[in-house]
Write a structure and sequence with these properties.
Length: about 160
C-alpha cells in the first residue's frame, strides 16, 4: 500500500514537472523572439517548436527560421497576418493561397516568408477543426557577406570518409 502511494506521488510530480518545463520553454522562447522579431506578429495561440527554430542576429539584421504550431487553420492565420502585418509596417510582396498559404513580406531590407500548412490531428478530426504548422523564415541582405565561404577551404586537411 505504501509503495503504490509513493509511486503515484512520484508519477504525479514527474508528469506535472514536464508540463512546467514545456510552459517555461514557451514563455522564454516568446520573450527571445519578441526581442529579436519585435515587429513581426505571432498568433497568440501558437506554440514554438524547439528543434527546427534557429535565429541569428539582432534588431534589423535578424535572420533565421521559426516553426510554430497554431490551433487556427491556415485561412484563419492568413486573416490574422493580413491584418496584423499592416500595422507593423510589413509590406506584402507575394502570396499563394490554397490549402497551403505562402506569404512573402518586405520591411527595411528584410524579407519574411510565412508558410502555413494544415495540421490534421485525431483530436482535430473529431472536433472538426484543423490547426496549422507555420514556418517563418526571415532573411536580412547582410546575413551572408561571403558568397562562397568554402573557397579557401583546404580539402587536403579534411578527414577521409570511409
Amino acid at each position: 500500500m505504501k509503495f503504490s502511494t509513493l509511486s503515484l506521488v512520484f508519477v504525479l510530480l514527474f508528469s506535472t514537472s514536464c508540463s512546467l518545463f514545456v510552459d517555461e520553454y514557451q514563455v522564454n522562447s516568446r520573450k527571445v523572439i519578441a526581442y529579436l522579431l519585435e515587429d513581426l506578429p505571432l498568433p497568440d495561440d501558437a506554440d514554438i517548436i524547439k528543434l527546427p527554430t534557429v535565429l541569428l542576429g539582432t534588431g534589423d539584421a535578424i535572420s533565421g527560421r521559426i516553426t510554430l504550431e497554431s490551433g487556427y487553420s491556415p485561412a484563419e492565420n492568413l486573416i490574422f497576418y493580413g491584418n496584423e502585418t499592416l500595422t507593423t509596417g510589413w509590406q506584402l510582396i507575394s502570396s499563394k493561397v490554397g490549402e497551403e498559404v505562402t506569404l512573402i513580406y518586405f520591411k527595411n531590407g528584410r524579407y519574411a516568408t510565412l508558410e502555413m500548412k494544415p495540421r490534421r490531428t485525431v483530436g482535430g478530426f473529431i472536433a472538426g477543426d484543423v490547426g496549422s504548422d507555420i514556418v517563418i523564415s526571415v532573411v536580412h541582405p547582410d546575413a551572408i557577406s561571403d558568397q562562397n565561404p568554402y573557397d579557401d577551404l583546404n580539402y587536403s586537411n579534411l578527414p577521409e570518409v570511409p
